[in-house]
């Protein structure tokens, strides 16, 4: 063990930008900003992998017949891995690990996270987990071929007796590692936010992004151990002659896995979207030059979404043969979530109302977020009804719905944050033209992919099939052309990064490059921030002028 | 202990508690289903003390059978349906036949639909309580003794129940016969 800690490194008090050498800085890193950067790089890499998988799926679905893939199993492996990678290795690391680590300590006026070395552990568990997932691609899964094709929901018996090969064991181990990474991260965030706020920053003066990450961290802490338990049970069920938690022949119940999985899985979707809520609130407020409308309502709406999110899980399982009264409860509870979500959407609109709005790049991403999230939310309200869902269950309508809230909601949130804090993180600005081009290509691309899928779903096209009847060809083709547009937008995104890096000398930015509307603490320090910020804690003065009036 | 460590311990405790809850879900779920009849879990009674009352109201009990693809058995109800009064004991038969050339032990799971009728559907004797072993080619008739609890009539929520489906699925048991001796059923009428 090599101990690199605060005690071993001579503290240089007059120069806060004294950075460790490359290997120590990036591999033994305990600095929240460096770990945040690592998370963002990791998120971008897994986003590319997950995006590649989905692009192959769209290529396959461009025309009826099996064209690209050699068999259906491999297609299902791509579907499953796309879901797992995008959720656990792209959205979560980018939003929570990346922007959370970068900005939570700064926004609440703390010098670093509460447990910097645990933070390092949280990050480095992820590449290990990702490698496990990648290995599973290339080892035998089912009789039909390599990899695990049981979708991200991993329902038994397909994930137990149906996938006897080691491919799924690697996924279990990878997900357990990713899960523990998130649990450690959650403990770190909660402790930091509860205990390390600058003097004078009460909970009710805390920036909304900090609120969103606090709620997210609690959801992670309560939901992920349940997934871990369910995965352990799958693992022991898979052993020949092992346990029979989910095997009906030996007194188990496969439905119990679904309950456990969705008890985790539903909070998981809020884990992915809540941090984006927080980020969008800051952006809307900054570029409307107004404090956020209904600050407390916004904060407690997120708390309410988090709490209610734990008691609606069975709306993913309406078709398993549930009592009609149980369905009635889950319909009602699910519809209730639309209320706090509505509070958020209307508060964003009210913030913009009468504000002096500037359509900067992060602002258009945030507006895109609101618009697309509302579209996804409305289809969600439809799907919440058990009767409608019986018809639409496992069709492309569901695919369209959750991609509108995640692939567009969460990902638009990520890009909004990226363009909002780009100057703060790197110290220089990006090209306005290229970043707007990125936005418009991405906006058109993802809408082209997913809007037609509503029609496909309403017409009964089921999910997770490699082939489809010729009647579905037109909208599938449109959807696949959308994938090409999205691919072009990804290329432009890398151009934005490269161009900005080349022009870094000319585009230096100051402390608060967004001006008057940006009021949180990160805008009081330099861009990029010093390696260790707030050696003297900032003091937040009394008075509630930020939100009360 | 610093304030941060204290918070950390508390949060780890919370995570461990959820992990424990996850692992105990098997027991919790079983108990919950048995007590509430959730998911169509019928009640099991070893005596017939509730049978003092027999009401005029009738329900039709329909019988359904399924066999796991791994089990080379034929399994059918002898009668498709049967009408019983609430509180009246019904006796139904299923037949199972081993179509393979080796003795096999099977075990059946059971379920009642509509699921809200399950808490009132009581089985006093059933072939599904124990493992069943069939010799090669052997056919066996297996009884189910059941009644529908008259309490059902008192519930407003169950006033629409006129039919109850009793369903069985036979799986291969994990206790396969070592010696080829037929295990006799419990003595039953």
From TrEMBL, chain A:
<comment type="similarity">
    <text>Belongs to the heme-copper respiratory oxidase family.</text>
</comment>
<keyword id="KW-0679">Respiratory chain</keyword>
<feature type="transmembrane region" description="Helical">
    <location>
        <begin position="328"/>
        <end position="351"/>
    </location>
</feature>
<comment type="pathway">
    <text>Energy metabolism; oxidative phosphorylation.</text>
</comment>
<feature type="transmembrane region" description="Helical">
    <location>
        <begin position="35"/>
        <end position="55"/>
    </location>
</feature>
<keyword id="KW-0186">Copper</keyword>
<dbReference type="InterPro" id="IPR000883">
    <property type="entry name" value="Cyt_C_Oxase_1"/>
</dbReference>
<keyword id="KW-1003">Cell membrane</keyword>
<feature type="transmembrane region" description="Helical">
    <location>
        <begin position="433"/>
        <end position="451"/>
    </location>
</feature>
<feature type="transmembrane region" description="Helical">
    <location>
        <begin position="170"/>
        <end position="196"/>
    </location>
</feature>
<dbReference type="InterPro" id="IPR023615">
    <property type="entry name" value="Cyt_c_Oxase_su1_BS"/>
</dbReference>
<dbReference type="InterPro" id="IPR023616">
    <property type="entry name" value="Cyt_c_oxase-like_su1_dom"/>
</dbReference>
<dbReference type="InterPro" id="IPR033944">
    <property type="entry name" value="Cyt_c_oxase_su1_dom"/>
</dbReference>
<keyword id="KW-0813">Transport</keyword>
<feature type="transmembrane region" description="Helical">
    <location>
        <begin position="481"/>
        <end position="502"/>
    </location>
</feature>
<feature type="domain" description="Cytochrome oxidase subunit I profile">
    <location>
        <begin position="26"/>
        <end position="541"/>
    </location>
</feature>
<feature type="transmembrane region" description="Helical">
    <location>
        <begin position="208"/>
        <end position="235"/>
    </location>
</feature>
<feature type="transmembrane region" description="Helical">
    <location>
        <begin position="75"/>
        <end position="100"/>
    </location>
</feature>
<feature type="transmembrane region" description="Helical">
    <location>
        <begin position="121"/>
        <end position="143"/>
    </location>
</feature>
<feature type="transmembrane region" description="Helical">
    <location>
        <begin position="363"/>
        <end position="384"/>
    </location>
</feature>
<protein>
    <recommendedName>
        <fullName>Cytochrome c oxidase subunit 1</fullName>
        <ecNumber>7.1.1.9</ecNumber>
    </recommendedName>
</protein>
<keyword id="KW-0349">Heme</keyword>
From TrEMBL, chain B:
<keyword id="KW-0735">Signal-anchor</keyword>
<comment type="similarity">
    <text>Belongs to the COX11/CtaG family.</text>
</comment>
<dbReference type="Pfam" id="PF04442">
    <property type="entry name" value="CtaG_Cox11"/>
</dbReference>
<dbReference type="InterPro" id="IPR007533">
    <property type="entry name" value="Cyt_c_oxidase_assmbl_CtaG"/>
</dbReference>
<protein>
    <recommendedName>
        <fullName>Cytochrome c oxidase assembly protein CtaG</fullName>
    </recommendedName>
</protein>
<keyword id="KW-1133">Transmembrane helix</keyword>
<keyword id="KW-0997">Cell inner membrane</keyword>
<feature type="topological domain" description="Cytoplasmic">
    <location>
        <begin position="1"/>
        <end position="6"/>
    </location>
</feature>
<keyword id="KW-0472">Membrane</keyword>
<keyword id="KW-0812">Transmembrane</keyword>
<keyword id="KW-1003">Cell membrane</keyword>
<dbReference type="InterPro" id="IPR023471">
    <property type="entry name" value="CtaG/Cox11_dom_sf"/>
</dbReference>
<keyword id="KW-0186">Copper</keyword>
<comment type="function">
    <text>Exerts its effect at some terminal stage of cytochrome c oxidase synthesis, probably by being involved in the insertion of the copper B into subunit I.</text>
</comment>
<feature type="topological domain" description="Periplasmic">
    <location>
        <begin position="26"/>
        <end position="189"/>
    </location>
</feature>
């Amino acid at each position: 063990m090599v101990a690199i800690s605060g005690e071993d490194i001579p503290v240089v008090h007059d120069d806060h930008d004294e950075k460790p050498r490359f290997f120590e800085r990036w591999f033994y890193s305990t600095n929240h900003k460096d770990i945040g950067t690592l998370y963002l790089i990791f998120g971008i890499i897994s986003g590319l992998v997950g995006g590649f998988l989905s692009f192959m799926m769209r290529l396959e679905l461009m025309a009826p017949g099996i064209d690209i893939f050699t068999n259906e199993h491999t297609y299902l492996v791509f579907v499953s891995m796309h879901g797992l990678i995008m959720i656990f290795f792209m959205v979560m690391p980018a939003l929570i690990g990346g922007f959370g680590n970068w900005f939570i300590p700064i926004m609440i006026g703390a010098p670093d996270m509460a447990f910097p070395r645990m933070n390092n552990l949280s990050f480095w568990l992820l590449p290990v987990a990702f490698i496990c997932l990648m290995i599973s691609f290339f080892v035998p899964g089912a009789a039909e071929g390599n990899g695990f094709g049981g979708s991200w929901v991993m329902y038994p018996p397909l994930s137990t007796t149906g996938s006897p090969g080691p491919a799924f064991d690697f996924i279990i181990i990878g997900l357990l590692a990713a899960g523990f990474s998130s649990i450690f991260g959650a403990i770190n965030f909660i402790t930091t936010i509860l205990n390390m706020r600058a003097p004078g920053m009460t909970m009710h003066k805390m920036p909304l992004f900090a609120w969103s990450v606090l709620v997210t961290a609690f959801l992670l802490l309560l939901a992920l151990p349940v997934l871990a338990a369910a995965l352990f049970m799958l693992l022991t069920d898979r052993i020949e002659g092992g346990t029979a938690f989910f095997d009906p022949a030996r007194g188990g119940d496969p439905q119990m896995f679904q309950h456990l999985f969705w008890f985790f899985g539903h909070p998981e979707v809020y884990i992915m979207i809540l941090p984006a809520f927080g980020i969008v609130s800051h952006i809307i407020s900054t570029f409307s030059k107004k404090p956020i409308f209904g600050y407390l309502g916004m904060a407690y709406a997120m708390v309410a979404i988090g709490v209610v999110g734990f008691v609606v899980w069975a709306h993913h399982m309406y078709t398993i043969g549930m009592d009609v009264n149980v369905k009635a409860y889950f319909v009602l509870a699910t519809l209730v979530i639309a209320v706090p979500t509505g509070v958020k959407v209307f508060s964003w609109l009210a913030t913009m109302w009468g504000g002096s709005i500037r359509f900067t790049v992060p602002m258009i991403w945030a507006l895109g977020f609101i618009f697309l999230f509302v579209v996804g939310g409305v289809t969600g309200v439809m799907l919440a009804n058990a009767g409608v869902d019986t018809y639409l269950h496992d069709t492309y309508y569901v695919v369209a719905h959750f991609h509108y809230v995640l692939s567009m909601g969460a990902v638009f949130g990520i890009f909004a944050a990226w363009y909002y804090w780009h100057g703060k993180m790197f110290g220089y600005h990006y090209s306005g033209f290229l970043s707007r081009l990125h936005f418009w290509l991405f906006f058109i691309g993802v809408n082209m992919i997913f809007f037609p899928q509503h029609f496909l779903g309403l017409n009964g096209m089921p999910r997770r099939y490699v082939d489809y009847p010729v009647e579905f060809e037109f909208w599938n083709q449109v959807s696949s052309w959308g994938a090409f547009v999205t691919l072009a937008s990804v290329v432009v995104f890398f151009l934005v990064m490269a161009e900005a890096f080349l022009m870094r000398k000319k585009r230096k930015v100051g402390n608060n490059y967004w001006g008057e509307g940006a009021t949180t603490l990160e805008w009081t320090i330099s861009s990029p921030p010093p390696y260790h910020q707030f050696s003297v804690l900032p003091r937040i003065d009394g008075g509630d002028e930020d939100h009360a009036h | 202990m610093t304030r941060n460590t204290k918070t950390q311990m508390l949060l780890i405790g919370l995570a461990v508690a959820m992990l424990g809850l996850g692992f105990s879900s098997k027991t919790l779920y079983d108990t919950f289903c048995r007590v509430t009849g959730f998911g169509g879990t019928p009640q099991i009674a070893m005596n017939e003390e509730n049978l003092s009352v027999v009401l005029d109201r009738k329900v039709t009990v329909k019988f359904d059978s399924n066999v796991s693809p791994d089990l080379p058995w034929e399994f059918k109800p002898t009668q498709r349906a049967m009408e019983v009064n609430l509180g009246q004991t019904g006796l139904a038969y299923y037949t199972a036949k081993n179509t393979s050339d080796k003795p096999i032990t099977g075990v059946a799971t059971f379920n009642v639909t509509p699921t809200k009728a399950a808490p009132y559907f009581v089985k006093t004797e059933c072939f599904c309580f124990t493992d069943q072993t069939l010799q090669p080619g052997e056919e066996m008739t297996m009884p189910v003794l059941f009644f529908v609890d008259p309490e059902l009539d008192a519930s407003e929520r169950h006033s629409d129940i006129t039919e109850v489906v009793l369903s069985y699925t036979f799986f291969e048991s994990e206790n396969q016969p070592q010696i080829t001796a037929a295990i006799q059923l419990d003595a039953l009428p």
